[in-house]
Fold:
Amino acid sequence: MVRFDSETSSSSSSSPSLFSPSSASRGKYDVFLSFRGKDTRRNFTDHLYAAFKRRGIITFRDDEKLETGEPIAPELFKAIHESWCSVIVLSEMYAFSSWCLEELSDIIQQKNDKGHNVFPIFYYVDPSDLRKQTGKVQEAFLKHENNFQDNKEKTQRWRSALTQVANIKGWHLSNRHESELIGEIIKKVSTKLCQTFASAPTDMIGLESRLEELNCKIGIEEEDDSVQIIGICGMGGLGKRAWFGLGSRIIITTRDEHLLQIYGVNDVYNPTKLNAKEAVCD
Structure:
């Protein structure tokens, strides 16, 4: 997003955590993406990850190389615990992966123990098949129970996690465009993040309602990649600077360096003109 400040007659931009005074309590990641790589890594999940990235939503997606080894890599558990939510792409062959089921089991445990947010995507699968564990799911668990005959607790835990996630309201990809669904997902997660973290500290009386008004003008919950210019105009002492959370980065563009000195910027970058070699067109 881009902000225009009438006090400095300059434009500036900041990170998506602009209106997040409570961002100090935010996890390392906004979203943990759970999916079976062979099913969706190079199509739906890749497009979803790119959409999150464009919106400025910090998303963890496991390295393709990690999935070649068993058991599940410890860094994935750590990433789940450091994420605000998990978005789970439940594809037809998801239940065949012991890696995915172990990951899912930990996500559901985090949800039950710590209120971790979970958003399931039923990618051409019927939630009832997951709940009742019929069809491909039944086939998958016959395989797992044969492989883990000495650890029935593990497969039972996986069954329970799959049933629980199937009971969570999510998105169904069936007879619709993937791009449309991805837009809905980004909008929902973005809105929930905004509602969770764009709240004013209790000692800043009256700021909450003003933040809500500003968030409406910004339209952060809308799926719109266009550049926006928002002005924050008012007399000094109203707390305009206090709206920026810890870790915010503000970029101001202006031709008048004196204005930057007045604003008290930390550093100034002066882009140079193209040199003779760079300016030559082939």
User: Anything to note?
Assistant: Confidence is low (pLDDT under 50) at residues 1-24. The two ends are 35 Å apart (CA to CA).
